[in-house]
């Protein structure tokens, strides 16, 4: 026979990590950081300088040549993707009532998040606007071959 908890009593706590609590905390903390990262990104890309008409291959290449912007874009990518994936996970847990469909959807979210994080990070860290051995007529004007 189980005892009925009194109104002032706390329910018994299960051992282990409370993933829902940490997911909730992550959403709040990453949301605050993302606001700063996104508005900084928008300001530099759209307001400072010549505005949207200045965004081209050379602009992106120049940004990705600076370690500050590499870290900035990496943080933006990772925080935004994990933030979005955690939000989708919450929606699936709230609305997918069939356990098999829930597992499939959660697996799809996990796989797509890992693939996008991997590809995005590779692009940020391996971007080379002037690859060696490329024909000079295909390279941008700022590459040393054309100068």
Your description of this structure?
The chain is mainly alpha-helical and 147 residues long. The chain has a single domain, classed as 3 helical TM bundles of succinate and fumarate reductases, CATH 1.20.1300.10. Helix 1 packs across helix 3 and helix 3 runs antiparallel to helix 4. The longest helix is centred in the first third of the chain and has 29 residues. It is elongated, with a radius of gyration of 23 Å. The chain starts with 18 loop residues before the first helix and ends in a 21-residue tail after the last helix. The mean pLDDT is 87. Keywords: Heme, Iron, Membrane, Metal-binding, Transmembrane, Transmembrane helix. It is found in: Membrane. This is Succinate dehydrogenase / fumarate reductase membrane anchor subunit. Its main location: membrane.
Which tags fit this structure?
147 residues; single chain; Succinate dehydrogenase / fumarate reductase membrane anchor subunit; heme; 4 helices; 3 helical TM bundles of succinate and fumarate reductases
Helix count equals 4
Q: What does the main sheet amount to?
A: none
Distance between the termini: 85 Å
* Beta-strand share of residues: under 5%
Overall radius of gyration: 23 Å
Q: What is the number of beta strands? A: 0
Subcellular location: Membrane
Protein name: Succinate dehydrogenase / fumarate reductase membrane anchor subunit
Organism: Antiquaquibacter oligotrophicus
InterPro entries: SQR/QFR_C/D, SuccDH_FuR_B_TM-su
